[in-house]
Amino acid sequence: MGEIRPEELLIGYDMINHIKILGRYRHLIWDLAIKDIKVRYRTPVLGFLWAIFIPLIMVFIFKFVFSTILRSRVENYPFFIYLMTAIFPWTYFSTSVSTATESISNNRDLIKKTYFPRQIIPVSIVLANLINFIPALVVMLMILILFRMQFSVLIILLPVALLIQTIFTIGVALIVSSLQIVLRDVKYIVQLLLMAWLYFSPGFYSLTMVANFSERFLKIYSLNPFVGLFSLYRIALLKDYIETIPPAINIFTLSISAVVISIGVFLLGFLIFKRFESRFYDLI
Amino acid sequence: MRVIKLENVGKKFILTHQNDKINRSFFSSLSGQRTTTEFWALKNINLEVEKGKVVGLIGRNGAGKSTLLNIIAGISSPTIGKIEINGRVSCLLTLGAGFQNELTGRENIYLNSSILGMSRNEINKKYRSIVEFSELDGFLDSPLQTYSQGMRLRLGFSVAIHMDFDILLIDEILSVGDVWFQKKCFDKIDEFRKQGKTMVITTQALGIVERICEEVFLLENGEIAQHGYPQKVTARYLELLNEKRLPETFLLRYGKLRWWADKRFWEKKEGSREVRIVEASTYNSSGKQTNQFKPGESIIFKAYFIVDQEVIDPHFGVAIFREDGVYCYGPNTSFDGYRIERLNKGEGFFSIHYKSLILRPGKYRFSAAIWDKDEVWAYDYHVGYYKFEIIGDNKNGQLINLKYRWQPDSWWRKFTISNSENIDSLLDINLQEQDDIVHPDIEIDTVELLGSDDEPRYTFHTGEDLKIKLHLKVHGDYQELYLWLGLFRGDGIYCHGAIRRIKEDVVSLTYHSLPLLTGDYYLSAGIWKRNNRTHLLLKHKISAFKISFFGKDHGTVFLEHNWEWKLP
Questions:
Q1: Between chains, do B70 and A281 touch, taking CB under 8 Å as contact?
Q2: Of A260, B97, B123, B527, which one has the fewest beta carbons inside 10 Å?
Q3: Residue A265 sits in which domain range?
Q4: Cα–Cα distance, B489 to B32 (Å, whole number)
Q5: Does the beta-carbon distance from B102 to A2 stay under 8 Å?
Q6: Looking at chain A, which residue has its C-alpha nearest residue B101?
Q7: Count of other CB atoms within 10 angstroms of residue B271
Q8: pLDDT tens-digit profile of B377-407?
Q9: What is the DSSP code (8-state) at residue A68?
Q10: Domain B263-394, what architecture?
């Protein structure tokens, strides 16, 4: 373990540097992300189409289970559309996190043999998944148009939601990728948590249902940034969605808490990552 | 200005026994039961490097050289101590780190450059030059998985040396690759040195250390055992190796080169015999088994083996000795940069193919061996077991045919490089036993040794050109005077001789891409009149020089070769 320099304990000190570095190494982040995508899709026959198929098929499965078998309904919108607006962003998050978990340990060669700030590896993984997500997003918009859904001006919130989600995802990616080196069990824990996380987010049920269940539970429940994020995506994509939110929920505070938590996790990610970075070389 | 400063640096490794990945599981970390031992790879390292200096790190395998280099590079961090680095560091530790098989050569150039820290602009600017240096122009749109190991190496090297840096760290990489590649590396290092770049080099080739380093650090068990000027430190290193009583082969590789083979061991087999060489023979280029070859013909030596017990990380070695014991050449697969991960039970073979053997006619023997990873013990070693002969006359005992050219030269020979023996060279038989002869009217005034850049030098690298320029003083006329120049190795092996009629005071002889291996060499000269069977003048050791080779190959002369094998 490396000796801790006193200034490392000041959260703000190195943090700004670590983040600035991302800007300085933007080409490398981009190159690594592009490499990741090329390597991922150069061999499969369907290639890039998988980026669209996977979330789409997930949506169909959930639709079949929850709507056709369990007869779940949401107010005002077709269940399929309601599902899609959450599941598509969710696949971006979950594939980012699960691929990032082993990103450091899979890049043994780079860690052992070259020097560049290591945070670039998980960040580039998230970027690769973001690029991967763009065509899926386009397909989603096309489906919405196909369903004759109307858009409001609030669609400008879509990039905002995407940005917050990306910041949050980077934070989580940094945490899991560094912890995985120290504790090899992390990838299994991550798998489990990702599954639980989706069920504790308002993906295939509405916030109204949660509010009806327990107001107190709702308060804790809202700490999950995906409550705010899914809501933001729906506000942006589904016209008048904002009016269907129950009065018990203040959408403004929900969004703000999503932003605050995302930035908090982002910073925490750097803190944890940098704390363990010096041990990567020895433990990998 | 100090560019590198290490203060009390130490690096501790925690070794977890057996399978460390399983041991690092949740439960064992909870229960606190760990079977670990600590091990200090580096202790108390204090080291300072001034800007523009070329510094060498030497020491045995496992002494901590690579760990230290990794710490300076910032790849690994020290457990204790302080490091100060001023300037941009570039590493030739590993060529092509992060190369992706699926991507094309071009894509890999870009990726590798940005991993090494080049900006996009910088890469765009240098792209052409990187491609030209690598000489891989036609291959850049093919995926990297179609490249040979050598091509990857070239690509990696080209990218690495195009990075702007203040401090260059060079690990053992110089010992891999072919002669072409090593020469290119060496030229580049020379160029960097002239530009005043700071360099830290680790290598086992002490000749190189002595030639290019200004200061050398000797590492032993993770500590700096000595530092100072090269000759002093390399001498200490050799002593250290002797003290440790390392196997003879080890010395051979790192220390005093053994000039002559101990013929008492010939036709013996040694080894622990997990793997057995069952049959071996020599073949000519058309695949016919034979023991007789013409000069310059290609030779294939092929050995079949049986693996009785699985071994890990072995390597194959083949050596050629001349019948009188001269160690001609002994490469092995590990020196050549190949790694054989394991030999499973079963049968296989390995073969070495010399495209054109430049050895002079005579009787020779092959040794064949399968060694463990460090060449400390042999699984099977057949010493001087397999005989072959190169047909022809070789009365004067020269070892090899070399490419050389005299200057000034007749116009029709200006464009050809002679590679044949000199028929007149019968006066150089048994010269060793003759004393110097002085002549009142003929004198060798000065002898200059020049590199390919026409600068005087005393150390040459294997594969470089060597130019010998003689200034003679001849009173009277030159009628029918002949000059002989002999190239000897320090221990008296007569490597090559060249003869020419002299007409002027200044004569020069250029050896092209001299394939001699590391060692001390000297030149002798003789002058006689045509049809006169004795020398008018004979002078031993008119000049001496050193040759250094980046690789570790044993012997006297580098012979172009290819390996081939089939593993069980």
A1: yes
A2: A260
A3: 7-283
A4: 62
A5: no
A6: A39
A7: 18
A8: 678 888 888 999 988 877 777 888 888 888 7
A9: I
A10: Distorted Sandwich (2.70)
